[in-house]
Structure formats: structure tokens, C-alpha cells
């Protein structure tokens, strides 16, 4: 639980996050969104618990071999192993990520912060991950390493500082961003837009035309309605680095190339994407959610591009 002086760069980042990070309590989620958040929280806690007996206290860095890390490094590492890059090992900066959450509203996966020295300039001295049942799991000290502690303990009640809900911020599309708006538009057309010749009035499109239209509706002109040309836009992105709004390209057959009308999807997060596909010849309804884990898609995946 040792403190350290925040570097100049960290101080600048912290000041910026201070301006944007205190925008009120955590927003309410839909039932489906909450399910995704709960699943991610459970996975994070599983990783956190699996490190008991493996990782030891190592001040403010993260070493994988041997596994040594401080409290902020432990949080960073556990989240990173589950696809969420908090971008910092610094628990002071971590205390401004995501959204504020009241102590009586804590949920699994929330970050809980403590300040054992209220006279210095650093807002926090320690961080843990809420485990449920009024407990946190954390890299406690050189003597204890990783433990699960009850928040009713004297140290935790006396030094409690704040809590932040970060999982929804990183897991769910943020509709205030261009990428989030594109995903929202694509999802809103599910069950409405149909597969067919390009017609904005009737909302009929083939796969790359659907992507073109959705982007255009959000002020992004791709300049082409052809898959093979869209696949050359922006920058390539690896499958493990996908972000909402990225474009996914699929061949017609496994191992094939991208043609002018190959399947193109808009990544929406959690391994899912929105795509306009000719799946029902009777109705023409084609805007659906796909999953990259599905063999019919994974075997035909060719590339992904970040165009925003």
C-alpha cells in the first residue's frame, strides 16, 4: 500500500481525467448490457483469484516472470487479461476512470480506492477490485500479497476514498463517439432494413452498401459501396484489438478472397458484429448480429479495418 509521487506525465493525464471523470453516478444499463457487464466482471474476478499464490507484491510495476506487481499493476494486469486496457498502472489515475459509484451501490468488478495519507497531493494510496458481499480482492502488501478483504475492516472503513465503475465504459459502445453512433445506427436497423438493391428510402442494401449507408448517416463517407475497396480503407487491425465501429471482412468461402460484394460487418463489441446478409430468401430480412466465434464466420474471416 505504499505511495509514490506521480510523474509529470501522469499528473497531466490525471488532471485531464479529473475534468472528464466526475460526470455523476454510473448510468443505468439495459438488461442485455448488464448481462454483458456481469459476465465480464465474473471473468475478471476469476483471473484475479487465480493469481493468488502466483503473483507477489512488487511495488508499482508489473513483471510477468516472476509475477510481481503493485496494487495498481495488479488491477491493470487482471483487466488486461480480460480484454480491457485501462492504460495505466497508476492507482491515482485509475481513480478517475469510468464513472463514480456510491459505496452502497458497488457491483462486482468495480474499482475501490483508499487513501491512508490525506495530507499529501495524491488522492489514493491503494486500490482493489470489488468481489461481492462487501469484499475486495487486491494486492495488499509485501507481507500479504493477494488477499480477499472485508470492507468492514478498520483500515478500509477509515481510509475509503471512492469507487469507480469502469467495465461498461470499456466494454459497451459509447454512443457519444462516432464509432458508438455507427454501431447504434446499425443495431437500430435490425429487423427493419432488408437485403436488396441499394435504396435509402426502402432501406434495402447488400452487405457493403449497408456499411456505406450506416457510416454516411453518421457523417463518415467511405466513398465506395464495394467490399474489396472498403477493405483498403483506413488501417488494418488485428482480431484481438478490435474496437466498436471497426469493419470486418469475410470471404464467400473459407480461404477465399474479398470480392466486390463480400460480407462486411460492423463490429459492436463482445465478439459480435452487425451485418446485412441474405439469410432469408422469402422475406429478404438481412440485418442481423453475427459472432466471430461462430464457425460460419470465423472460417471465412479475412481482415478488419479501422476507418474512423
Written overview of the protein:
With 308 residues, the chain is an alpha+beta fold. The chain folds into 2 domains: 8-171, Alpha-Beta Complex (endopeptidase fold (from Nostoc punctiforme)), CATH 3.90.1720.10; 178-306, endopeptidase domain like (from Nostoc punctiforme) (endopeptidase fold (from Nostoc punctiforme)), CATH 3.90.1720. 29% of the residues lie in helices and 22% in strands. It has helices spanning 8-20, 31-50, 71-80, 91-94, 154-159, 167-171, 178-188, 207-217, 227-230, 295-298, and strands spanning 56-57, 62-63, 68-69, 99-100, 111-114, 126-132, 135-139, 146-150, 160-165, 194-195, 204-205, 235-236, 247-250, 264-269, 272-276, 287-291, 301-306. The strands form 4 sheets. A 6-stranded antiparallel β-sheet has the order 4-9-5-6-7-8. A 6-stranded antiparallel β-sheet has the order 12-17-13-14-15-16. A 3-stranded mixed β-sheet has the order 1-3-2. Helix 7 crosses helix 8 (207-217). The longest helix is centred in the N-terminal third of the chain and has 20 residues, at 31-50. The chain is elongated and about 65 Å long. The chain starts with 7 loop residues before the first helix and ends with a strand. Residues 1-24 have low confidence and may be disordered. One of its GO terms (molecular function) is cysteine-type peptidase activity. Residues 38-167, 176-308 form the NlpC/P60 domain. This is Gamma-DL-glutamyl hydrolase. Belongs to the peptidase C40 family. Residues 1-28 form the signal peptide.
Amino acid at each position: 500500500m505504499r505511495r509514490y509521487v506521480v510523474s509529470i506525465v501522469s499528473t497531466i493525464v490525471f488532471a485531464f481525467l479529473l475534468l472528464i471523470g466526475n460526470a455523476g453516478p454510473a448510468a443505468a444499463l439495459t438488461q442485455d448490457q448488464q448481462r454483458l457487464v456481469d459476465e465480464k466482471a465474473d471473468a475478471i474476478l476469476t483471473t484475479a483469484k487465480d493469481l493468488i499464490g502466483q503473483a507477489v507484491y512488487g511495488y508499482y510495476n508489473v513483471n510477468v516472470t516472476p509475477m510481481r506487481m503493485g496494487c495498481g499493476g495488479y488491477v491493470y494486469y487482471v483487466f488486461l487479461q480480460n480484454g480491457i486496457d485501462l492504460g495505466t498502472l497508476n492507482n491515482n489515475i485509475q481513480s478517475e476512470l469510468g464513472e463514480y459509484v456510491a459505496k452502497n451501490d458497488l457491483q462486482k468488478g468495480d474499482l475501490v480506492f483508499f487513501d491512508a495519507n490525506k495530507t499529501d497531493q495524491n488522492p489514493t494510496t491503494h486500490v482493489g477490485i470489488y468481489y461481492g458481499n462487501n469484499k475486495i480482492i487486491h494486492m495488499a502488501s509485501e507481507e500479504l500479497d493477494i488477499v480477499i478483504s472485508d470492507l468492514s475492516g478498520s483500515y478500509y472503513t477509515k481510509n475509503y476514498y471512492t469507487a469507480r465503475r469502469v467495465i461498461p465504459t470499456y466494454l459497451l459502445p459509447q454512443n457519444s463517439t462516432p464509432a458508438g453512433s455507427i454501431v447504434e445506427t446499425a443495431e437500430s436497423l435490425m429487423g427493419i432494413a432488408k437485403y436488396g438493391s441499394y435504396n435509402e428510402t426502402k432501406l434495402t442494401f447488400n452487405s457493403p452498401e449497408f456499411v456505406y449507408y450506416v457510416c454516411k448517416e453518421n457523417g463518415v463517407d467511405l466513398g465506395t459501396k464495394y467490399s474489396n475497396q472498403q477493405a483498403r480503407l483506413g488501417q488494418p487491425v488485428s482480431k484481438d484489438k478490435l474496437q466498436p465501429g471497426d469493419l470486418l471482412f469475410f470471404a464467400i468461402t473459407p480461404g477465399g478472397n474479398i470480392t466486390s460484394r463480400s460480407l462486411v460487418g460492423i463490429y459492436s463489441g463482445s465478439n459480435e458484429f452487425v451485418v446485412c446478409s441474405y439469410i432469408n430468401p422469402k422475406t429478404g430480412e438481412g440485418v442481423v448480429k453475427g459472432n466471430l466465434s461462430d464457425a460460419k464466420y470465423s472460417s471465412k474471416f479475412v481482415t478488419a479495418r479501422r476507418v474512423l
